[in-house]
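User: Second chain of the day. Same drill as before.
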Amino acid sequence: MSLFGDGLEAAVQKAFTRPAPKTAPAQMRYLVKQLKGTRAVAQMLRISQRTVERYVKNQIRKPRPELAARMEREVTRRWQPQVRARARQRAAATDGIVIDTRARIGYTAPIGTTDDARLRHLTVALPPQYAARLFDAQQAGATDQQLQQIAAEGLKETYFQDGGRRAGSLEEIRFTDIEHIEFEL
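Assistant: Same format as last time:
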């Protein structure tokens, strides 16, 4: 499970203008239309082409739980790509991204300061350049650790150093024991 990657994806999905298909036959018809054929859908979902055809014709309505999860994931991944792209572009250009987290956050700081990690609940609006970096890294296939590092750098600049207005030189911010993380565009 990719905590940061899934959180970014959930934030983008909130921008959808129409709900994705919910029933199995409707999801299957959408996938057949997107992939231009039942054979491609069957290969992607690892089921027979005949099974895909039966879903399309409404002969099967209730898939196995693992098939239902795969169908849901594939439909959501392909749903409203232009709306998804506009939401990412808007966040990266003007709006930025809000991060809401409850985690143990510590930092490396000069000697004489307390740098022990402590549980914090933060809701911070990160500037557009961090939204752009997060989305670019996600598209490039970054690991959850890399996405976490970008978010930590944004928190360091925006929250801990208040955009450069607070004195002090924090070297590194680190997340541990993340209880909750949510992103909002």
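The beta strands are 97-108, 118-126, 172-184.

User: Great, on to the next one.
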